[in-house]
Amino acid sequence: MSDEKPPVPPTGPPKTEAAPPPPNPADEHAFTKRVKEKFPDAVVEGKLCRDDLFLTVKKYSLLEICRFLRDDPALNFNYLSFIAGAHYPKRADAPLECVYGLYSVGKWHSIYLRVHTKEDEPIPSVTGVWPAADWNEREAYDLYGIRFEGHPGLKRILLPEWWDGYPLRKDYPMVGPDEDGVIDTVLKESAGDEDFGPGAGSRGW
């Protein structure tokens, strides 16, 4: 007689295969499909937020995509609303980001492009597509250190040229590069030899 014990049947509910992830609604958006049709390898991901479409695109394809979004009759994104910078220090491979807000004046629709990069890898300037990008790109450079290849005059726009660092990065010191007297120095250079002592606030500063 064998001493082997009969196999114990499994307990609990039967195992089922994991359900496939739900489709990404952004992939079904008409704008996503149109961009992917023209640039099949340029879109990294898409997201919908309160019906607003955000497309993350490869920076080397940005300029061509922007021209297409502006010139395609069905899209007609003829207005650059803004360019905003962002800093994600934990994203080590590309901690800097640019967001482009585009709008169609005639068709009343919008789209947002996102581009990831790092400090030593410039993003193509879109000043040749929307001239209004000039000061927007300078601001992103001034406050985040994002560089734009092909910009006609990339330099600081809010801070003096000698300023050290980029104040809107998350690793920037809260007190600034020099806690002693740096604010007074900036104000005096901007307004001339004014009195910045007690009572200066009464003059609207």
Which key terms come to mind for this protein?
alpha/beta, 205 residues, five-stranded mixed sheet
Q: What's the main sheet like?
A: 5 strands, mixed
Oligomer: single chain
- Secondary-structure-based class equals alpha/beta
Strand order of the largest sheet: 1-2-5-4-3
- End-to-end distance, in Å? 99 Å
- Could you tell me the strand content as a percent range? 15-25%
Low-pLDDT residue intervals, each spanning 5 or more residues: 193-205
Nearest-integer average pLDDT? 86
> How many helical elements?
4
H-E order: HEEHEEEEHEH
Percent helix: 10-25%
Number of strands: 7
What is the rounded Rg? 26 Å
How does the overall form come out from the CA principal axes? flat
Give a description of the structure:
With 205 residues, this protein is α/β, with parallel strands linked by helices. Helices cover 20% and strands 20% of the residues. The protein contains four helices and seven strands. The chain has a five-stranded mixed beta sheet. It has a two-stranded parallel sheet with strand order 6-7. Strand 4 and strand 5 form a beta hairpin. The longest helix has 12 residues, at 133-144. The radius of gyration is 26 Å and the shape is flat. Mean pLDDT is 86; it is low at 193-205.
